[in-house]
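Dear support,

Our group has been running a series of protein-ligand predictions, and this particular one with NAP is the one our PI (initials K.S.) wants archived with full inputs and outputs. We had some confusion internally about which version of the output was final, so please treat the block below as the authoritative record. The input we submitted was:
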Amino acid sequence: MKVRNRSTKGLGIRMTSKIALVGIGKIAVDQHVPAINASADWELAATVSRSGTVDGVSAFTDFDQMLTDRPDIPVISLCLPPVPRYDYAAKAIAAGRHVMLEKPPGATLAEVHALQTMADVAGVSLFATWHSRMADGVAPAKAWLADKTITRAHINWKEDVRRWHPGQHWVFEPGGMGVFDPGINALSIITEILPQPMHLQNATLQFPANRDTPIAAQMQWTGNVSGDFDWRQEGPQSWDISVETDAGNLTLHDGGARLVINGAEMAAGKDREYPALYDRMADLVNSASSDVDLAPMIHVADALTLGKRVNVAEFHF
Ligand code: NAP
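Confirmed final output from the archive:
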């Protein structure tokens, strides 16, 4: 069993914990498996997926079976799309397991509140992850903005859905959130770095005539904060947040990895978002705590409540 030194709290060592990964699809393969394999905190002990497997790892196709057969696995990381995730999380918590949720943490706010209550009652940790908050520039941006007066902020989040969600029809089905599936990453950053809360004033949502979720959105919040989200961008992708203040301008580029303040480069990202999420999960389990911040998802729910619907051209993968 691997151990690693802990310098700040506890007994000074941290044991390696077994973890099961559920939903072996794009993000599990791209990010979760490499992050777990590179960590001294975690051993990937099982997968659950109807079609995906990871070489050398015990593979289940049925979640209930895994929970029954593997009481030695205390932590479950759910990489499923948001709609099926609640049932898995509820079963895992009922079986006394700690749970890590991919973003967005659920299909509705109420179901995530319910999971939080269940986790508290069961005495297990629940972590609603926001990987973009772990990008290199986010913490220094938050620190710099803490004592500034914000005069304007703008999100420019435009990417190619065919590249990042190839053939994934769930993103356009109810609960898939459409362009807010990536857009919630921007919202996770802006709700983290701005010193004051904001609330939505108006939004326009562009729905392809053949789909149930928006492919683009324009949003305006209090505090002179605006956002432009689009899933039809080909070529270079745009994941930028710019903030104007009484002490100059700050821009986060590349999804938060690159930070520029008044023209000077302050952070130029190495990609440690998912390793940082797994470090945080280890801390939460060790300190018997949970981390569930729904602020980014509240803004998506508000957009779907308040936004004006506009029909645009059909979308086909
Ligand atoms: P995905 O590849 O379409 O789905 C992940 C896995 O979930 C699938 O392989 C599938 O496994 C399982 N699954 C799908 N629908 C299911 C259902 N109804 N019931 C049970 N299992 C189901 O999606 P993804 O791109 O990995 O995204 C998953 C989550 O990660 C989303 O919340 C997304 O926002 C987040 N995320 C994605 C990206 C990205 O670049 N794609 C980046 C960051 C975060 P089986 O069919 O084999 O069971």
